Amino acid sequence: MVINDELTTTLRQVGLTEKEAVVYVALLSLETGTAYQIAQQCEVKKPTVYVILEDLRKKGLVLKIPHAKKALFSASDLGGYLREQENRLKTAQSIIPKLHALGSGPPSSVYFFNGLNGFIQALGFKFETMRGKTYHSFYSVLAGGSKEIKEAYSKWDRKAVAADVGFKIIMAKEGGGKYYKDIFDLAKAGEDIEIRLLEKYDYPPTTTIEIAEDFIRILDETREQATIIDNKQTADAMRQIFQVVWEKGV
């Protein structure tokens, strides 16, 4: 089956991963089906389909129907999922004043981004304020990151380098694929990029953390989600932690 790219792209924009979107669209076309039928429909491996169906079930997008022989699945209405996302965002926004009250420093703003477009929007956050300054970053191994995410990273890196933005990057020795090679090529070309490789990567390798001058950007490439904490005091504290790891070296 040829999956509708427009549908899957839209679903990714509201928080689904690439494979979740593909499986959900395939199930919509079947109305009801077994994991095997869904796998055949979307050309995703059956074991992977089982995992994705469980993730979609937890999001309220799939119903599991008891059956005497094999489990059957059906797609739930997307509207319920979107309403739940809206409610979560409202809840998160409602506690921001309480978070502000807890700190002695200036208040923080916390922003949440979902889907490919949201991810790209997060990359561009306060871009102009970082001209001539340096990001201190823990890079993930990009496990599970889509081709579009890696392309977004590469495009943003080139734009940042052209704007005289510097980078100090800590990453694992293994992982990253072609994207890691592009970063090393930029560093070798004399750009303001320094890289330290860690033999043992102690922090979760599937999350990228970028510490800017006055905000922190946390990126989950697999789920295509981003969180930004816009607070200089928090960024300064995280930069000190980064420096400890940086000095640890290879």
Descriptive account of the structure:
- This is Transcription regulator TrmB N-terminal domain-containing protein.
- It comes from Candidatus Kaiserbacteria bacterium RIFCSPHIGHO2_01_FULL_53_29.
- Residues 11-77 form the Transcription regulator TrmB N-terminal domain.
- Pfam families: TrmB.
- This protein has two domains: 5-79, Orthogonal Bundle (Arc Repressor Mutant, subunit A); 103-248, Endonuclease Chain A (Endonuclease, Chain A).
- The protein is 49% helix and 20% strand.
- The protein has helices at residues 5-13, 18-30, 35-42, 46-58, 78-102, 115-123, 147-162, 177-188, 232-248; strands spanning 32-33, 62-65, 72-75, 109-114, 134-138, 166-172, 193-198, 207-211, 216-220, 225-230.
- It has a seven-stranded mixed β-sheet with strand order 4-10-9-8-5-6-7, sandwiched between helices. A three-stranded antiparallel β-sheet has the order 1-3-2.
- Helix 1 (5-13) crosses helix 2 (18-30), helix 2 (18-30) packs across helix 3 (35-42) and helix 6 runs parallel beside helix 7 (147-162).
- The N and C termini lie far apart (47 Å).
- The mean pLDDT is 83.
